[in-house]
Structure formats: C-alpha cells, structure tokens
Amino acid sequence: MRYIDSAYGRSVRSDIMSRVIMIDLSKALFIFLSIFIVSFSAFLFFVDQDGKYDEHYELMSHVAQYCESGDWVDIPTYSFRDEKFTENANFQGKIITADMRMKKMTDERSELLFVTNPNFSLVFFGGRDVEIAGRYKEGSQKKVLYVDRIKCIGAEAQENIKDERQEMMQFITKNKNNIIEDPDEFIVEDITFVDESVVYVYMVQKNGENRMQKLYLVQMEKNNDSYTMFTLATYKLDNQKFVLVDGVDDYKNARQTVYEYNKKADRWTLAR
User: Fold this and answer.
1) Which residue stretches of the chain have pLDDT < 70?
2) What are the backbone angles phi and psi of residue 198, rounded to the nearest 5°?
3) Taking Cα atoms as reference points, which of 117, 134, 127, 131 lies closest to residue 60?
4) Is the dihedral of CA 95, 99, 100, 103 positive or negative?
5) How far is Cα 97 from Cα 103, in angstroms, rounded to an integer?
6) What is the pLDDT of residue 242?
7) Model-wide pTM > 0.70
8) Residues near 185 by Cβ (< 8 Å), separated by ≥ 6?
9) pLDDT recorded at residue 23
C-alpha cells in the first residue's frame, strides 16, 4: 500500500516526525552555539586589537608634546618570539632612520640597531638627540637595543632655546609684512627651524576657493628686543610641490623641526 492510514501508521509517522524535529533542533542548537562562540571570540579579539590601537594612537599622538617637554615616552613591553633582551642598556646621542620603509633606526655610526614594540614607531625621533633606556639583545653579533623608554634631550627640549624660539615665532607672526606684500590676506600656518636663526615660514591664504600657499626661507637677526628679517629664498607651489623661484637655499638637507600654532594653548607647539 502506498499510504498507511491506520492509527498505528499515524503513530509511526508522528514518532518519526518527532525524531526528525529533535534532530533538526539539535543541529540548529549546535550551529547556533558554534556561531556564538566564533562571534564572541572575534569580538574579544577585536576589542583587544582596538585597545592596542587606541593605546598606540594615544601615545603616538602625544609624542611631540612629550619630546618638547623633555618627558620620557614609556613604550609598552612586547615579547619577540625566540628573542631575548636581557642586559640593561642606556644610550645618549642622535638616532637616524636607516630604512624608512622598514622603520629601522640606528646610531650615527650604524653600530647599534634600535628596535621596539612593533605597534609603535621611533621614526619621529630620527635625527634628534635622545636618551634611551632599554635592554640589549642576547647572543646577537650586531648590538641590538630594545627601547623601553625614550626622551628628547636636544634643542627642542631645552628651556632657554624653547623660550627664544617662541619669541622669534611670535615676532614672525606679527611682522609677516616684512616677508610678504599682502600680509592681511595670509596666515602663518607653520614655522620650521633649520638653524637657530634660520626658518622656513609657510603661509596660507585666509579665504578663497583655491587658497594660495607660499613658502619663504628667512634669516632672523636679533637686535636687543627685536629682530631684523632677511628673506633668503622664495618658493611657489607648482604641481603640488614647492619650487624655488628666487634666492638661494642652502638648508634643503638640514634637519627640520616643525612648529604649528596651537590656538587652545595660545602658543607655538612642536609638531614634527
């Protein structure tokens, strides 16, 4: 017979259907639990990653402030696989960027390689005089120093020089008419020191759809409580690059220390 229409047949079909439903519910429960576990694990992972990112961002966004104040930057410890850093190490001097792509830093003689937590970068300190506290790598032919903490000890962190720079930058801002013909139309966006008496002054037009940008190399000569300003070179923006149009620039390869005006603090602050 093709159909079972008896009470017994109906009972068998009900039993089979109940088992099928139980099996389907078990599968659904298993799938649900699997998805929940995977999702929760992913949530915990990304929360952890976000925490690491926030920690990284928070520290790196204040590096210039730490540098200018001469405070230590404490870098969270990181464990390198199969590598041990044991003997305590200290370093004072200039560090340079040996490989920008790989973010490798060395001392000026390339005798010492600096490494740190890979979530953080030492590139900001390239070309600066710093003090470092850390540990040497065990069993390495080349001296490798793991950086635990670092601080600036160069001109940008020295109180007397900071005061002189502030005074000079305030003067430039108030007397930009000595550099540019239409001073009221432009604001000084940033000032870059290449020497204690020579700066790049970057100006941007206040208004306009395509705000004009100008760059000048200026020498500052102090006279008692004032300054005399000499424009050494003038640049114009061409194809997103500044091109020298007048004067001579002997400071193209000099170490640049950039300051931006902080409205909230009402002072010029170290930017990079």
Assistant:
1) 1-60, 81-82, 98, 100-103, 139-142, 208-209
2) -130, 130
3) 117
4) negative
5) 7
6) 92
7) yes
8) 205, 206, 207
9) 45
Report the alpha-carbon distance of residue 147 to residue 125 in Å, rounded: 12
From the list 108, 193, 93, the residue with the least C-alpha distance to 153 is 93
Instruction: Return the HEC string of the chain.
Output: CCCCCCHHHHHHHHHHHHHHHHHHHHHHHHHHHHHHHHHHHHHHHHHHHHHHHHHHHHHHCCHHHHHHHCCCEECCCCCCCCCCEEEEEEEEEEEEEEECCCCEEEECCCCEEEECCCCCCCHHHCCCEEEEEEEEECCCCCEEEEEEEEEECCHHHCHHHHHHHHHHHHHHHHCHHHCCCCHHHEEEEEEEEEECCEEEEEEEECCCCCCCEEEEEEEEEEECCEEEEEEEEEEEEECCEEEEEEECCCCCCCCCEEEEEECCCCEEEECC
Instruction: Please tell me the predicted confidence (pLDDT) of residue 264.
Output: 86
Q: Among residues 207, 210, 226, 212, which one has the least CA distance to residue 180? A: 212
How many residues are recorded in the chain?
Answer: 272
Residues 193-204 have pLDDT tens digits of 999 999 999 999
pLDDT (0 to 100) of residue 100: 63
CA–CA gap between residue 218 and residue 172 (Å, rounded): 10
Say if residue 99 is exposed, middle or buried (CB neighbours under 10 Å; 0-12, 13-18, 19+). exposed
Residue 137 confidence (pLDDT): 83
